[in-house]
């Protein structure tokens, strides 16, 4: 399977309460916010592997997720180059962050943080990898399954060529990228917790 679920999995509701409590009427169903961090990229094309390697780092060092109010509500998805097959996992989320290399004609390793709607409105002139973020977001829009919040975050690549390591300027930008990704998710979780 080209992608995998690494956290608790997305669930739109959970049961609370004790079904045996007198007068409780059984378990109460409450809505649970769901978020996903989706890493895109080809692991054998140097900087193109960015998204997949970020997900791998979050999976191998779960303490990075300790900055989140509710790490269990976040689905980490290594999307590789799967493309539209990812749609069922992305529909109607409370928050989606897509991590991918982004060519925006900036210095290699530059952090680029975009509101997802900017890609749909063509506010940004850039290139994400083939069948990447733009196509996934377009399909979610057409299907009327757009997540409540979407960010596309990446780094300007230096090289997309055969190779299994990130180039030095892109590798140097990964810690800041991870901080930015988790900062957005944490803010969304805090906002949703206060609105509940």
Overview of the molecule:
- The chain is an alpha/beta fold and 196 residues long.
- It has helices spanning 50-60, 87-90, 116-121, 133-142, 168-195; strands at residues 13-16, 28-31, 35-40, 74-80, 95-99, 102-103, 111-115, 127-128, 150-155.
- The strands form 3 sheets. A 5-stranded mixed sheet has the order 4-3-5-9-7. Strands 1-2 form a two-stranded antiparallel ribbon. The chain has a two-stranded antiparallel sheet with strand order 6-8.
- Which class of secondary structure composition applies to the elements? alpha/beta
Strand content: 15-25%
Helix content: 25-40%
Terminal CA distance: 36 Å
So how many helices? 5
Element string (H = helix, E = strand): EEEHEHEEEHEHEH
**Quaternary structure annotation:** single chain
Major sheet, described briefly?
A: 5 strands, mixed
């Amino acid at each position: 399977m080209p992608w995998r679920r690494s956290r608790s999995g997305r669930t739109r509701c959970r049961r609370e309460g004790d079904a045996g409590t007198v007068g409780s009427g059984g378990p109460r169903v409450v809505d649970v916010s769901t978020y996903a961090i989706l890493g895109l990229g080809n692991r054998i094309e140097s900087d193109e592997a960015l998204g997949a390697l970020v997900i791998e780092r979050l999976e191998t060092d779960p303490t990075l997720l300790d900055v989140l109010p509710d790490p269990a509500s976040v689905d980490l998805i290594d999307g590789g180059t799967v493309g539209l097959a990812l749609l069922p996992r992305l529909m109607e989320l409370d928050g989606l962050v897509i991590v991918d290399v982004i060519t925006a004609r900036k210095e290699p390793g530059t952090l680029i943080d975009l509101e997802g709607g900017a890609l749909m409105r063509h506010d940004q002139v850039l290139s994400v990898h083939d069948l990447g973020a733009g196509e996934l977001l377009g399909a979610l829009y057409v299907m009327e399954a757009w997540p409540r919040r979407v960010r596309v975050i990446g780094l300007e690549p230096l090289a997309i060529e055969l190779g299994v390591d990130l180039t030095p300027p892109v590798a140097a930008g990964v810690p800041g990228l991870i901080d930015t990704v988790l900062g957005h998710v944490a803010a969304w979780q805090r906002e949703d917790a206060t609105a509940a």
